[in-house]
């Protein structure tokens, strides 16, 4: 075992004292039977669920990355922080990865919200997705960074300042560059993935799955914004991006009449989701017990943001059902745009993910 997260397995030893073996004394047990007994004992050790060397064998070693090798992440649970070079963005992108427990080839991409940081994916900070999925046979893929990007390929650098251009080519990275790395070093199949995200990440999850149906079998939006070209949404996005990092919304898809805006709106971009498992959720925006302790101004902001998410999600669901998509929707009676809501959805959908991806 090499990693601090490794779990000790059963170590089986066969000991014989010279000239004292019961087998040699009895003289009746064949070498084939002895080999069979040892093999059965070894298999019994490997089959221990959640603790055996089968789990450690896929999780206790650091994979190569573009800087040499990945590092153990401080969150534990076998999560590695890997630098994956993106030719499209011209830099290394950090990705936090928890290998599947037993080497399965399914992957779950977890996308961050509008204020994604450059030091950790929020699914490991504001809740612990790694702990939730630790006993299971699916690889968690958690990209770091991309604040305000909607995980899209932008037409131009995101910042208004040309002195420090921010190049966003996240769709290319997540669907063309990262899958090759994951397949080579973590055994994740390019056609056996689920994708989920919160808020901005929920919008992106449905877009990416619809535009790349060969990569994703399942898509889930937790409090996403699913009608981004609806009246007023462009203004809301403009203000949100300026507040997030001084980003220029026109640099993403161009002007309000640019066709790319509609190509990247989940409301108009859902044909590729046909035949897939799709889950959407948004709460009412009303305060509930889970919001106790949150500052009042944060609760007010969270109520407004969740109410907008709810309206866009319901509109998206109605259109999706009319088009024959396989959609499950969940609308809790209380809840605001906060990690109490996002985390509850992560836990609520875990079994769904494992069933669809056959990754128990």
Automatic annotation (TrEMBL):
Locate the transmembrane regions by residue number.
Answer: none
Do you know which InterPro entries this protein is assigned to? AB_hydrolase_fold (IPR029058), Esterase-like (IPR000801), Mycobacterial_A85_antigen (IPR050583)
Note the Pfam families from the entry.
Esterase
Superkingdom field? Bacteria
Q: Which GO terms describe its molecular function?
A: acyltransferase activity, transferring groups other than amino-acyl groups
List each coiled-coil range.
Answer: none
Name it: Putative PS1 protein
UniProt source species: Corynebacterium efficiens (strain DSM 44549 / YS-314 / AJ 12310 / JCM 11189 / NBRC 100395)
